[in-house]
Protein backbone atom coordinates (compact mmCIF):
# COMPACT_ATOMS: atom_id res chain seq x y z
CA UNK A 1 0.00 0.00 0.00
CA UNK A 2 1.25 3.46 -0.86
CA UNK A 3 1.33 6.44 1.48
CA UNK A 4 2.00 9.45 -0.71
CA UNK A 5 3.69 12.59 0.60
CA UNK A 6 2.11 15.97 -0.11
CA UNK A 7 4.48 16.54 -3.02
CA UNK A 8 3.82 13.10 -4.46
CA UNK A 9 0.10 13.86 -4.37
CA UNK A 10 0.66 17.12 -6.29
CA UNK A 11 2.83 15.32 -8.84
CA UNK A 12 0.26 12.52 -9.18
CA UNK A 13 -2.21 15.06 -10.54
CA UNK A 14 -0.02 15.30 -13.66
CA UNK A 15 -1.06 11.78 -14.63
CA UNK A 16 -4.62 13.03 -15.29
CA UNK A 17 -5.85 15.29 -18.03
CA UNK A 18 -9.31 16.49 -16.92
CA UNK A 19 -11.45 18.90 -18.92
CA UNK A 20 -11.77 21.90 -16.55
CA UNK A 21 -12.68 25.52 -16.99
CA UNK A 22 -12.05 28.13 -14.30
CA UNK A 23 -12.92 31.84 -14.61
CA UNK A 24 -13.66 31.33 -18.30
CA UNK A 25 -10.31 29.69 -19.14
CA UNK A 26 -9.40 26.09 -19.89
CA UNK A 27 -6.99 24.61 -17.36
CA UNK A 28 -3.92 23.08 -19.00
CA UNK A 29 -2.21 21.72 -15.88
CA UNK A 30 -4.12 21.28 -12.62
CA UNK A 31 -0.90 20.86 -10.59
CA UNK A 32 0.37 24.24 -11.84
CA UNK A 33 -2.91 26.21 -11.82
CA UNK A 34 -2.51 29.11 -9.33
CA UNK A 35 -6.29 29.39 -8.89
CA UNK A 36 -6.38 25.86 -7.45
CA UNK A 37 -3.17 26.08 -5.40
CA UNK A 38 -4.86 26.74 -1.99
CA UNK A 39 -7.12 23.72 -2.55
CA UNK A 40 -4.25 21.49 -3.63
CA UNK A 41 -2.27 22.64 -0.57
CA UNK A 42 -5.18 21.67 1.70
CA UNK A 43 -5.39 18.14 0.30
CA UNK A 44 -1.58 17.84 0.41
CA UNK A 45 -1.82 18.41 4.19
CA UNK A 46 -3.94 15.23 4.50
CA UNK A 47 -1.00 13.31 2.99
CA UNK A 48 1.70 15.11 4.97
CA UNK A 49 0.05 14.67 8.38
CA UNK A 50 -0.05 10.92 7.75
CA UNK A 51 3.75 10.91 7.69
CA UNK A 52 4.15 12.72 11.01
CA UNK A 53 4.80 10.26 13.82
CA UNK A 54 2.88 12.26 16.42
CA UNK A 55 -0.28 12.19 14.29
CA UNK A 56 -0.11 8.65 12.92
CA UNK A 57 -2.36 7.15 15.58
CA UNK A 58 -5.25 9.20 14.25
CA UNK A 59 -4.14 9.68 10.61
CA UNK A 60 -3.53 6.00 9.83
CA UNK A 61 -5.79 2.96 10.04
CA UNK A 62 -4.54 -0.61 10.19
CA UNK A 63 -6.12 -3.11 7.79
CA UNK A 64 -6.85 -6.75 8.67
CA UNK A 65 -3.53 -7.85 7.08
CA UNK A 66 -1.59 -5.36 9.21
CA UNK A 67 -0.87 -2.78 6.49
CA UNK A 68 -1.48 0.86 7.32
CA UNK A 69 -3.42 3.24 5.10
CA UNK A 70 -4.57 6.82 5.41
CA UNK A 71 -7.63 6.76 7.66
CA UNK A 72 -9.47 8.86 5.09
CA UNK A 73 -9.39 5.81 2.78
CA UNK A 74 -10.43 3.29 5.43
CA UNK A 75 -13.65 2.03 7.01
CA UNK A 76 -14.44 2.30 10.73
CA UNK A 77 -14.84 -0.91 12.69
CA UNK A 78 -15.27 0.37 16.25
CA UNK A 79 -16.25 3.38 18.33
CA UNK A 80 -12.55 4.06 18.69
CA UNK A 81 -12.18 4.27 14.89
CA UNK A 82 -15.09 6.74 14.73
CA UNK A 83 -13.54 8.86 17.47
CA UNK A 84 -10.20 8.87 15.67
CA UNK A 85 -11.89 9.84 12.42
CA UNK A 86 -13.55 12.73 14.25
CA UNK A 87 -10.24 13.85 15.74
CA UNK A 88 -8.59 13.47 12.34
CA UNK A 89 -11.07 15.77 10.59
CA UNK A 90 -10.65 18.30 13.40
CA UNK A 91 -6.86 18.19 13.09
CA UNK A 92 -6.91 18.49 9.29
CA UNK A 93 -9.37 21.38 9.30
CA UNK A 94 -7.51 23.19 12.06
CA UNK A 95 -4.64 23.32 9.56
CA UNK A 96 -6.52 23.86 6.34
CA UNK A 97 -9.99 25.28 7.08
CA UNK A 98 -11.43 22.37 5.11
CA UNK A 99 -9.44 19.23 4.27
CA UNK A 100 -12.08 18.15 1.70
CA UNK A 101 -10.80 14.60 1.38
CA UNK A 102 -12.96 13.27 4.20
CA UNK A 103 -15.98 13.17 1.89
CA UNK A 104 -14.48 10.09 0.26
CA UNK A 105 -14.21 8.32 3.62
CA UNK A 106 -17.92 8.95 4.10
CA UNK A 107 -18.87 7.75 0.61
CA UNK A 108 -16.80 4.56 0.97
CA UNK A 109 -18.34 3.87 4.38
CA UNK A 110 -21.88 4.25 3.04
CA UNK A 111 -21.17 2.08 0.00
CA UNK A 112 -19.69 -0.68 2.19
CA UNK A 113 -22.97 -0.94 4.09
CA UNK A 114 -25.47 -0.58 1.27
CA UNK A 115 -23.69 -2.83 -1.26
CA UNK A 116 -23.56 -5.57 1.41
CA UNK A 117 -27.24 -4.97 2.18
CA UNK A 118 -28.22 -5.24 -1.51
CA UNK A 119 -26.19 -8.43 -1.94
CA UNK A 120 -27.83 -9.99 1.12
CA UNK A 121 -31.36 -9.00 0.17
CA UNK A 122 -31.32 -8.96 -3.66
CA UNK A 123 -28.51 -11.42 -4.41
CA UNK A 124 -26.51 -8.80 -6.34
CA UNK A 125 -22.68 -8.77 -6.55
CA UNK A 126 -22.01 -5.16 -5.72
CA UNK A 127 -20.11 -5.70 -2.47
CA UNK A 128 -17.24 -7.51 -4.22
CA UNK A 129 -17.06 -4.65 -6.74
CA UNK A 130 -16.96 -2.21 -3.85
CA UNK A 131 -14.24 -4.16 -2.02
CA UNK A 132 -12.06 -4.17 -5.14
CA UNK A 133 -12.55 -0.45 -5.46
CA UNK A 134 -11.66 0.12 -1.81
CA UNK A 135 -8.44 -1.84 -2.31
CA UNK A 136 -7.71 0.23 -5.42
CA UNK A 137 -8.01 3.60 -3.59
CA UNK A 138 -5.99 2.25 -0.66
CA UNK A 139 -3.25 0.78 -2.89
CA UNK A 140 -2.68 4.08 -4.69
CA UNK A 141 -3.59 6.38 -1.76
CA UNK A 142 -6.08 8.20 -3.97
CA UNK A 143 -8.25 11.21 -3.25
CA UNK A 144 -11.79 10.90 -4.58
CA UNK A 145 -14.29 13.71 -4.89
CA UNK A 146 -17.78 12.74 -3.79
CA UNK A 147 -20.54 13.77 -6.17
CA UNK A 148 -23.97 13.49 -4.56
CA UNK A 149 -25.89 16.74 -5.08
CA UNK A 150 -27.46 16.75 -8.54
CA UNK A 151 -28.25 19.92 -10.47
CA UNK A 152 -31.88 19.17 -9.39
CA UNK A 153 -33.65 21.86 -11.45
CA UNK A 154 -37.19 22.46 -10.12
CA UNK A 155 -36.96 21.36 -6.48
CA UNK A 156 -40.68 20.59 -6.32
CA UNK A 157 -40.34 17.88 -8.97
CA UNK A 158 -38.86 14.40 -8.90
CA UNK A 159 -36.00 13.46 -11.27
CA UNK A 160 -38.21 11.93 -13.98
CA UNK A 161 -40.58 14.95 -13.86
CA UNK A 162 -37.92 17.54 -14.73
CA UNK A 163 -38.27 19.43 -18.02
CA UNK A 164 -34.67 18.48 -18.86
CA UNK A 165 -34.13 14.77 -18.14
CA UNK A 166 -30.41 15.34 -17.41
CA UNK A 167 -30.90 17.59 -14.37
CA UNK A 168 -30.16 14.48 -12.32
CA UNK A 169 -27.41 12.03 -13.34
CA UNK A 170 -28.99 9.04 -15.08
CA UNK A 171 -28.20 5.87 -16.95
CA UNK A 172 -28.87 6.34 -20.67
CA UNK A 173 -27.61 2.96 -21.85
CA UNK A 174 -26.49 -0.42 -20.50
CA UNK A 175 -24.44 -3.04 -22.34
CA UNK A 176 -22.38 -6.07 -21.42
CA UNK A 177 -19.31 -3.91 -20.74
CA UNK A 178 -20.91 -1.25 -18.59
CA UNK A 179 -23.25 1.72 -18.47
CA UNK A 180 -23.39 5.17 -20.08
CA UNK A 181 -24.38 8.10 -17.88
CA UNK A 182 -25.37 11.72 -18.50
CA UNK A 183 -26.43 14.62 -16.27
CA UNK A 184 -24.79 16.95 -13.78
CA UNK A 185 -23.72 17.10 -10.14
CA UNK A 186 -23.43 20.56 -8.57
CA UNK A 187 -21.27 22.10 -5.79
CA UNK A 188 -18.64 19.34 -5.85
CA UNK A 189 -15.83 20.00 -3.39
CA UNK A 190 -12.24 19.75 -4.57
CA UNK A 191 -13.38 18.42 -7.96
CA UNK A 192 -10.52 19.83 -10.09
CA UNK A 193 -7.70 18.34 -8.03
CA UNK A 194 -8.95 14.87 -7.08
CA UNK A 195 -8.08 11.62 -8.87
CA UNK A 196 -11.54 10.10 -9.19
CA UNK A 197 -15.16 10.76 -8.35
CA UNK A 198 -17.45 8.54 -6.34
CA UNK A 199 -20.99 9.25 -7.54
CA UNK A 200 -23.96 8.61 -5.26
CA UNK A 201 -27.70 9.33 -5.59
CA UNK A 202 -28.79 12.51 -3.82
CA UNK A 203 -32.23 11.32 -2.68
CA UNK A 204 -34.59 8.40 -2.40
CA UNK A 205 -35.80 7.48 -5.88
CA UNK A 206 -39.20 6.03 -6.74
CA UNK A 207 -39.84 3.31 -9.35
CA UNK A 208 -40.41 5.96 -12.03
CA UNK A 209 -36.91 7.32 -11.30
CA UNK A 210 -35.22 3.97 -11.90
CA UNK A 211 -32.82 5.40 -14.51
CA UNK A 212 -31.55 7.81 -11.87
CA UNK A 213 -30.80 5.06 -9.38
CA UNK A 214 -27.09 4.79 -10.00
CA UNK A 215 -23.80 4.88 -8.13
CA UNK A 216 -20.31 4.44 -9.58
CA UNK A 217 -16.68 5.55 -9.55
CA UNK A 218 -15.01 7.33 -12.44
CA UNK A 219 -11.59 8.92 -13.08
CA UNK A 220 -11.70 12.73 -13.38
CA UNK A 221 -10.47 12.63 -16.97
CA UNK A 222 -12.98 10.09 -18.31
CA UNK A 223 -14.08 11.06 -21.84
CA UNK A 224 -17.27 13.16 -21.69
CA UNK A 225 -16.67 14.45 -18.16
CA UNK A 226 -16.36 18.24 -17.87
CA UNK A 227 -15.98 20.60 -14.89
CA UNK A 228 -16.77 24.27 -14.53
CA UNK A 229 -14.83 25.16 -11.41
CA UNK A 230 -14.38 28.05 -9.01
CA UNK A 231 -10.99 29.18 -7.65
CA UNK A 232 -9.97 27.68 -4.31
CA UNK A 233 -9.84 30.30 -1.55
CA UNK A 234 -8.41 33.73 -2.38
CA UNK A 235 -5.28 32.87 -4.35
CA UNK A 236 -2.84 35.77 -4.75
CA UNK A 237 -4.83 38.12 -2.47
CA UNK A 238 -2.33 40.01 -0.29
CA UNK A 239 -5.03 40.61 2.35
CA UNK A 240 -5.75 36.89 2.75
CA UNK A 241 -3.03 35.35 4.93
CA UNK A 242 -4.97 32.11 5.33
CA UNK A 243 -7.03 31.60 2.21
CA UNK A 244 -4.26 32.58 -0.18
CA UNK A 245 -2.63 29.40 1.16
CA UNK A 246 -5.58 27.14 1.95
CA UNK A 247 -9.00 27.05 0.35
CA UNK A 248 -11.52 24.92 -1.45
CA UNK A 249 -12.63 24.85 -5.05
CA UNK A 250 -16.05 23.56 -5.98
CA UNK A 251 -17.26 22.62 -9.44
CA UNK A 252 -20.28 21.83 -11.54
CA UNK A 253 -19.44 18.34 -12.84
CA UNK A 254 -21.12 17.46 -16.13
CA UNK A 255 -21.41 13.93 -17.50
CA UNK A 256 -22.01 13.78 -21.22
CA UNK A 257 -22.40 10.13 -22.22
CA UNK A 258 -19.64 8.94 -19.91
CA UNK A 259 -18.87 5.21 -20.05
CA UNK A 260 -18.57 3.40 -16.70
CA UNK A 261 -17.38 -0.25 -16.75
CA UNK A 262 -19.36 -2.69 -14.61
CA UNK A 263 -16.40 -3.16 -12.27
CA UNK A 264 -16.89 0.46 -11.15
CA UNK A 265 -20.69 0.33 -10.75
CA UNK A 266 -22.01 0.02 -7.17
CA UNK A 267 -25.75 0.34 -7.81
CA UNK A 268 -27.72 0.41 -11.04
CA UNK A 269 -31.50 0.34 -11.04
CA UNK A 270 -32.07 -0.76 -7.41
CA UNK A 271 -34.13 2.36 -6.71
CA UNK A 272 -35.36 1.01 -3.33
CA UNK A 273 -31.81 1.38 -1.93
CA UNK A 274 -31.09 4.93 -3.13
CA UNK A 275 -32.62 6.60 -0.07
CA UNK A 276 -30.70 4.23 2.22
CA UNK A 277 -27.44 5.00 0.39
CA UNK A 278 -28.02 8.77 0.44
CA UNK A 279 -28.90 8.64 4.12
CA UNK A 280 -25.95 6.42 5.03
CA UNK A 281 -23.59 8.84 3.28
CA UNK A 282 -25.21 11.84 4.97
CA UNK A 283 -24.89 10.20 8.37
CA UNK A 284 -21.14 9.55 8.00
CA UNK A 285 -20.60 12.93 6.38
CA UNK A 286 -22.43 14.95 9.01
CA UNK A 287 -20.31 13.21 11.64
CA UNK A 288 -17.15 14.24 9.74
CA UNK A 289 -18.45 17.82 9.35
CA UNK A 290 -18.66 18.06 13.15
CA UNK A 291 -14.91 17.40 13.45
CA UNK A 292 -14.18 19.67 10.49
CA UNK A 293 -16.02 22.68 11.85
CA UNK A 294 -14.56 22.13 15.33
CA UNK A 295 -11.18 22.62 13.62
CA UNK A 296 -12.41 25.93 12.22
CA UNK A 297 -13.73 26.85 15.68
CA UNK A 298 -10.29 26.09 17.17
CA UNK A 299 -8.67 28.54 14.77
CA UNK A 300 -11.18 31.28 15.52
CA UNK A 301 -10.86 30.75 19.29
CA UNK A 302 -7.06 31.08 19.10
CA UNK A 303 -7.16 34.12 16.83
CA UNK A 304 -9.84 35.86 18.97
CA UNK A 305 -7.83 35.32 22.17
CA UNK A 306 -4.71 36.77 20.54
CA UNK A 307 -6.64 39.68 19.04
CA UNK A 308 -7.98 40.56 22.46
CA UNK A 309 -4.48 40.38 23.92
CA UNK A 310 -3.12 42.67 21.20
CA UNK A 311 -5.95 45.08 22.02
CA UNK A 312 -4.62 45.16 25.59
CA UNK A 313 -7.49 43.12 27.07
CA UNK A 314 -6.35 39.79 28.56
CA UNK A 315 -9.16 37.44 27.50
CA UNK A 316 -9.31 35.53 30.78
CA UNK A 317 -9.31 38.66 32.97
CA UNK A 318 -11.75 41.08 31.32
CA UNK A 319 -15.25 39.87 32.31
CA UNK A 320 -17.16 40.37 29.07
CA UNK A 321 -14.28 39.09 26.92
CA UNK A 322 -14.02 36.04 29.19
CA UNK A 323 -17.76 35.48 28.79
CA UNK A 324 -17.48 35.71 25.02
CA UNK A 325 -14.48 33.36 24.95
CA UNK A 326 -16.56 30.98 27.06
CA UNK A 327 -19.33 31.18 24.47
CA UNK A 328 -16.92 30.35 21.64
CA UNK A 329 -15.68 27.34 23.57
CA UNK A 330 -19.22 26.28 24.56
CA UNK A 331 -20.36 26.31 20.95
CA UNK A 332 -17.34 24.51 19.52
CA UNK A 333 -17.04 21.88 22.23
CA UNK A 334 -20.84 21.59 22.41
CA UNK A 335 -21.31 20.43 18.84
CA UNK A 336 -18.07 18.42 18.98
CA UNK A 337 -19.51 16.52 21.96
CA UNK A 338 -22.39 15.29 19.78
CA UNK A 339 -19.76 13.87 17.42
CA UNK A 340 -18.20 12.04 20.35
CA UNK A 341 -21.61 10.74 21.42
CA UNK A 342 -22.41 9.66 17.84
CA UNK A 343 -19.13 7.70 17.81
CA UNK A 344 -19.76 6.02 21.15
CA UNK A 345 -23.36 5.07 20.27
CA UNK A 346 -22.59 3.91 16.71
CA UNK A 347 -24.00 0.67 15.32
CA UNK A 348 -22.52 -2.20 13.32
CA UNK A 349 -23.77 -2.71 9.76
CA UNK A 350 -24.26 -5.91 7.75
CA UNK A 351 -20.87 -5.16 6.18
CA UNK A 352 -19.21 -5.17 9.62
CA UNK A 353 -18.27 -1.51 9.59
CA UNK A 354 -19.65 0.92 12.17
CA UNK A 355 -21.84 3.97 11.51
CA UNK A 356 -22.19 6.90 13.89
CA UNK A 357 -25.49 7.29 15.75
CA UNK A 358 -27.64 9.15 13.25
CA UNK A 359 -29.61 11.29 15.72
CA UNK A 360 -26.44 12.57 17.36
CA UNK A 361 -24.61 13.19 14.10
CA UNK A 362 -27.58 15.01 12.54
CA UNK A 363 -28.15 17.14 15.61
CA UNK A 364 -24.44 17.98 15.85
CA UNK A 365 -24.34 19.04 12.21
CA UNK A 366 -27.50 21.09 12.68
CA UNK A 367 -25.99 22.81 15.72
CA UNK A 368 -22.81 23.78 13.90
CA UNK A 369 -24.75 24.84 10.80
CA UNK A 370 -26.69 27.40 12.79
CA UNK A 371 -24.07 28.31 15.40
CA UNK A 372 -21.24 29.05 12.98
CA UNK A 373 -22.91 32.45 12.53
CA UNK A 374 -22.71 32.99 16.31
CA UNK A 375 -19.03 32.03 16.29
CA UNK A 376 -18.34 34.72 13.68
CA UNK A 377 -20.43 37.35 15.51
CA UNK A 378 -18.69 36.70 18.83
CA UNK A 379 -15.23 36.79 17.22
CA UNK A 380 -16.17 40.17 15.73
CA UNK A 381 -17.42 41.48 19.08
CA UNK A 382 -14.18 40.44 20.81
CA UNK A 383 -11.91 41.82 18.10
CA UNK A 384 -13.33 45.21 17.08
CA UNK A 385 -13.80 46.93 13.72
CA UNK A 386 -10.18 46.53 12.70
CA UNK A 387 -11.16 43.07 11.50
CA UNK A 388 -12.48 44.72 8.34
CA UNK A 389 -10.62 48.06 8.33
CA UNK A 390 -6.97 46.99 8.70
CA UNK A 391 -4.83 48.80 6.10
CA UNK A 392 -3.53 46.78 3.19
CA UNK A 393 -0.01 45.29 3.11
CA UNK A 394 0.71 47.60 0.16
CA UNK A 395 0.01 50.70 2.33
CA UNK A 396 2.09 49.31 5.16
CA UNK A 397 5.03 48.82 2.78
CA UNK A 398 5.08 52.55 1.80
CA UNK A 399 7.54 54.10 4.27
CA UNK A 400 5.55 57.18 5.31
CA UNK A 401 2.14 55.54 5.61
CA UNK A 402 3.75 52.45 7.14
CA UNK A 403 5.13 54.59 9.98
CA UNK A 404 1.76 56.27 10.55
CA UNK A 405 0.01 52.93 10.63
CA UNK A 406 2.57 51.54 13.06
CA UNK A 407 2.10 54.58 15.29
CA UNK A 408 -1.68 54.85 15.29
CA UNK A 409 -2.87 51.26 15.04
CA UNK A 410 -0.73 49.92 17.84
CA UNK A 411 -2.54 48.19 20.73
CA UNK A 412 -1.13 46.69 23.92
CA UNK A 413 2.19 48.14 25.18
CA UNK A 414 5.06 45.98 24.03
CA UNK A 415 3.32 44.69 20.88
CA UNK A 416 3.47 46.13 17.38
CA UNK A 417 0.66 47.41 15.19
CA UNK A 418 1.80 44.86 12.67
CA UNK A 419 1.03 41.98 15.05
CA UNK A 420 -2.41 43.42 15.69
CA UNK A 421 -3.10 44.00 12.00
CA UNK A 422 -1.96 40.50 11.02
CA UNK A 423 -4.35 38.96 13.54
CA UNK A 424 -7.20 41.20 12.36
CA UNK A 425 -6.51 40.18 8.77
CA UNK A 426 -6.58 36.50 9.70
CA UNK A 427 -9.93 36.97 11.41
CA UNK A 428 -11.30 38.89 8.45
CA UNK A 429 -10.14 36.13 6.15
CA UNK A 430 -11.81 33.40 8.24
CA UNK A 431 -14.99 35.20 9.23
CA UNK A 432 -15.77 38.41 7.33
CA UNK A 433 -14.37 38.01 3.81
CA UNK A 434 -15.66 36.20 0.77
CA UNK A 435 -13.96 33.15 2.31
CA UNK A 436 -15.66 33.78 5.65
CA UNK A 437 -19.00 33.79 3.81
CA UNK A 438 -17.98 30.55 2.15
CA UNK A 439 -17.36 28.95 5.57
CA UNK A 440 -20.84 30.03 6.70
CA UNK A 441 -22.59 28.58 3.68
CA UNK A 442 -20.59 25.35 3.62
CA UNK A 443 -21.38 24.91 7.33
CA UNK A 444 -25.06 25.55 6.68
CA UNK A 445 -25.58 23.56 3.47
CA UNK A 446 -22.59 21.22 3.15
CA UNK A 447 -23.85 17.69 3.83
CA UNK A 448 -27.44 18.78 3.22
CA UNK A 449 -29.66 21.72 4.10
CA UNK A 450 -30.61 22.16 7.79
CA UNK A 451 -34.07 20.82 7.01
CA UNK A 452 -32.52 17.58 5.73
CA UNK A 453 -30.82 17.18 9.11
CA UNK A 454 -34.01 17.89 11.05
CA UNK A 455 -35.84 15.32 8.92
CA UNK A 456 -33.13 12.68 9.44
CA UNK A 457 -32.97 13.35 13.16
CA UNK A 458 -36.74 13.01 13.56
CA UNK A 459 -36.88 9.94 11.29
CA UNK A 460 -34.19 8.15 13.28
CA UNK A 461 -35.29 9.27 16.73
CA UNK A 462 -37.28 6.74 18.74
CA UNK A 463 -40.40 8.92 19.12
CA UNK A 464 -42.63 5.90 19.70
CA UNK A 465 -40.90 4.83 22.90
CA UNK A 466 -41.12 8.38 24.27
CA UNK A 467 -44.87 8.46 23.53
CA UNK A 468 -45.43 5.05 25.12
CA UNK A 469 -43.48 6.11 28.21
CA UNK A 470 -45.67 9.19 28.69
CA UNK A 471 -48.92 7.24 28.21
CA UNK A 472 -47.81 4.57 30.71
CA UNK A 473 -46.86 7.23 33.23
CA UNK A 474 -50.20 9.00 32.81
CA UNK A 475 -51.99 5.70 33.48
CA UNK A 476 -50.04 5.40 36.73
CA UNK A 477 -50.76 8.97 37.80
CA UNK A 478 -54.46 8.48 37.15
CA UNK A 479 -54.54 5.34 39.27
CA UNK A 480 -52.63 6.60 42.28
CA UNK A 481 -54.43 9.85 42.89
CA UNK A 482 -54.97 10.03 46.59
CA UNK A 483 -53.97 6.40 47.21
CA UNK A 484 -50.59 4.87 46.48
CA UNK A 485 -47.79 7.46 46.93
CA UNK A 486 -45.06 4.95 45.90
CA UNK A 487 -46.44 4.72 42.39
CA UNK A 488 -45.55 8.31 41.53
CA UNK A 489 -41.85 7.64 41.95
CA UNK A 490 -42.05 4.07 40.63
CA UNK A 491 -39.55 3.38 37.82
CA UNK A 492 -41.09 0.21 36.40
CA UNK A 493 -41.61 0.42 32.64
CA UNK A 494 -45.11 -1.04 32.84
CA UNK A 495 -47.88 0.38 35.08
CA UNK A 496 -47.73 -1.76 38.18
CA UNK A 497 -51.29 -3.01 38.80
CA UNK A 498 -50.51 -4.68 42.11
CA UNK A 499 -48.99 -1.65 43.77
CA UNK A 500 -51.65 0.71 42.46
CA UNK A 501 -54.62 -1.34 43.46
C1 LIG B 1 -19.30 24.82 -0.21
C2 LIG B 1 -20.13 23.62 -0.51
C3 LIG B 1 -19.49 22.42 -0.80
C4 LIG B 1 -20.25 21.31 -1.14
N1 LIG B 1 -19.61 20.14 -1.47
C5 LIG B 1 -20.34 19.10 -1.94
C6 LIG B 1 -19.70 17.91 -2.41
O1 LIG B 1 -18.49 17.76 -2.36
N2 LIG B 1 -20.47 16.92 -2.91
C7 LIG B 1 -21.81 17.03 -2.97
O2 LIG B 1 -22.45 16.12 -3.45
N3 LIG B 1 -22.46 18.14 -2.55
C8 LIG B 1 -21.74 19.17 -2.04
N4 LIG B 1 -22.38 20.29 -1.59
C9 LIG B 1 -23.83 20.39 -1.79
C10 LIG B 1 -24.67 20.37 -0.54
O3 LIG B 1 -24.85 19.07 -0.10
C11 LIG B 1 -25.98 21.07 -0.96
O4 LIG B 1 -25.70 22.44 -1.10
C12 LIG B 1 -27.10 20.83 0.03
O5 LIG B 1 -27.48 19.48 0.01
C13 LIG B 1 -28.31 21.70 -0.32
O6 LIG B 1 -28.68 21.47 -1.65
P1 LIG B 1 -28.81 22.70 -2.66
O7 LIG B 1 -27.59 23.52 -2.56
O8 LIG B 1 -29.16 22.15 -3.98
O9 LIG B 1 -29.96 23.57 -2.08
P2 LIG B 1 -31.51 23.35 -2.23
O10 LIG B 1 -31.81 21.88 -2.18
O11 LIG B 1 -31.99 24.10 -3.41
O12 LIG B 1 -32.03 24.00 -0.91
C14 LIG B 1 -32.46 25.34 -0.78
C15 LIG B 1 -33.65 25.38 0.17
O13 LIG B 1 -34.74 24.71 -0.44
C16 LIG B 1 -35.25 23.70 0.43
N5 LIG B 1 -35.72 22.59 -0.41
C17 LIG B 1 -35.01 21.92 -1.34
N6 LIG B 1 -35.78 20.99 -1.92
C18 LIG B 1 -36.99 21.06 -1.37
C19 LIG B 1 -38.22 20.35 -1.55
N7 LIG B 1 -38.35 19.38 -2.45
N8 LIG B 1 -39.27 20.72 -0.78
C20 LIG B 1 -39.16 21.71 0.15
N9 LIG B 1 -38.03 22.40 0.36
C21 LIG B 1 -36.96 22.09 -0.40
C22 LIG B 1 -34.08 23.32 1.33
O14 LIG B 1 -34.48 22.79 2.58
C23 LIG B 1 -33.39 24.67 1.49
O15 LIG B 1 -33.99 25.40 2.53
C24 LIG B 1 -21.66 21.41 -1.18
C25 LIG B 1 -22.28 22.60 -0.85
C26 LIG B 1 -21.54 23.70 -0.51
C27 LIG B 1 -22.25 24.97 -0.17
TrEMBL record:
Annotated positions binding FAD: 189
KW Flavoprotein (keyword) present: yes
Native organism: Halalkalibacter nanhaiisediminis
Keywords, alphabetical: FAD, Flavoprotein, Isomerase, Oxidoreductase
Highest taxon of source: Bacteria
InterPro entries reported for this sequence: Acyl-CoA_Oxase/DH_mid-dom_sf, AcylCo_DH-like_C, AcylCoA_DH/oxidase_NM_dom_sf, HpaB/PvcC/4-BUDH, HpaB/PvcC/4-BUDH_C, HpaB/PvcC/4-BUDH_N
Gene Ontology MF terms: isomerase activity; oxidoreductase activity, acting on the CH-CH group of donors
All copies of domain HpaB/PvcC/4-BUDH C-terminal, residue ranges: 275-467
Taxonomic lineage from the root: Bacteria, Bacillati, Bacillota, Bacilli, Bacillales
Domain HpaB/PvcC/4-BUDH N-terminal, residue spans: 5-267
Protein name: 4-hydroxybutyryl-CoA dehydratase/vinylacetyl-CoA-Delta-isomerase
Amino acid sequence: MKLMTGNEYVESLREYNPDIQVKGKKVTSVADEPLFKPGINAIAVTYELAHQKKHQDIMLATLADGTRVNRLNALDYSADDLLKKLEMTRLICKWTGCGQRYLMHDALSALAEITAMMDAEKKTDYHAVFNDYLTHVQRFDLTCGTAVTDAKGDRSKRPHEQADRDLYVRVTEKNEKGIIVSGAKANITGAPYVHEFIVLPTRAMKKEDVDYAVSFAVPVDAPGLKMIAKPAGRPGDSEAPFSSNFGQSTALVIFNNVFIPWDKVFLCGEWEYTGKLAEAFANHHRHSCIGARAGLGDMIIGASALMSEYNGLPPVEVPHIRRNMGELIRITEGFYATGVAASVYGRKTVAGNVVPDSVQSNIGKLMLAEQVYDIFRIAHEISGGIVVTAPTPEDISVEESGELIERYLVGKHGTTANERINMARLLEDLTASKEGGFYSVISLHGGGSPEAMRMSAVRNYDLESQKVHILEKLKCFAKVEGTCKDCVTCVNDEPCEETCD
